[in-house]
Amino acid sequence: MIELYYWPTPNGHKITLFLEEAGLEYEIKPINIGAGDQFQTDFLKISPNNRIPAIIDQAPADGGEPVSVFESGAILLYLAEKTRKFLPNDIRQRNIVQEWLFWQVGGLGPMAGQNHHFSQYAPEKLPYAITRYVNETNRLYGVLNQHLQGKDFIAGDYSIADMACYPWIAPYKWQGQQLEDFPEINRWFQQIEQRPATVTAYEKGKQISQSAQLTAEKRKVLFGQTAKTQSSQV
């Protein structure tokens, strides 16, 4: 059993994609990040960066005590190694998967995240910031589009690299992008979008988030954090 501490964000979707694809038994523990659930003491014990997702594996491969993992990239690697799925054994293919996983974690995710913030959430619209992150997102789309030429998926076969990248491409309209401008991404995206595991994962996320609305108070919780405010909320 995997306990998944989750909210339906791009990083949260990464993990439900894997769990659905792998057929692992799991239980979602919703962490409403707008309500400040991520600052609860019990959650911080497994996710000290007060971010979702995080997991507790109640049946780790070594048969020992439960294992907790935070950070979405680390979770994908942990689950792939646990199940021996979606991470190739071949050293060259495995390297490609890991390169693109870290490309997403270090590039696509942060840049698209800032894109979302300044274009969708910021109370003051700053043209320079919006243009900066829309353009950088566009550049990263171009990098992925070039790489996908002649490939069904990022590393040939479907892998955790695809699961990491797809949820950050899914909000492409928010990011000021058009998939028609990136034909290889468009083809790749549609293949993943139609997978039964993808449909199920996103439906579960939709059910959880239906009642969540971003109020002014929730905006403060999400976007007003400093070391001082975080410690006061614990």
Question: What do these coordinates show?
Answer:
InterPro entries: Glutathione-S-Trfase_C-like, Glutathione-S-Trfase_C_sf, Glutathione_S-Trfase, Glutathione_S-Trfase_N, GST_C, Thioredoxin-like_sf. Keywords: Transferase. Belongs to the GST superfamily. Residues 1-87 form the GST N-terminal domain. Residues 90-222 form the GST C-terminal domain. By secondary structure, this protein is of the alpha+beta class. The chain folds into two domains: 2-85 and 198-227, 3-Layer(aba) Sandwich (Glutaredoxin); 91-193, Up-down Bundle (Glutathione S-transferase Yfyf (Class Pi), Chain A, domain 2). The protein is 57% helix and 8% strand. It has helices at 10-22, 41-46, 72-83, 91-121, 127-147, 160-169, 183-193, 196-209, 216-223, 227-233; strands at 2-6, 26-30, 54-57, 67-70. The protein has a four-stranded mixed beta sheet, covered by helices on one side. β1, α1 and β2 (26-30) form a beta-alpha-beta unit. α1 crosses α6 (160-169), α4 runs antiparallel to α5 (127-147) and α4 (91-121) runs parallel beside α6. It is globular. The protein starts with a strand and ends with a helix. The mean pLDDT is 92.
Proportion of residues in extended strands: 5-15%
Low-confidence stretches: none
Provide the CATH top-level class of the largest domain.
Alpha Beta
Look at the structure and name the CATH superfamily of the largest domain.
Glutaredoxin
Reported by name, the CATH topology of the largest domain is Glutaredoxin
Total DSSP E strands: 4
Radius of gyration: 18 Å
Whole-number mean pLDDT? 92
What would you say the CATH architecture of the largest domain is? 3-Layer(aba) Sandwich
Q: Specify the structural class.
A: alpha+beta
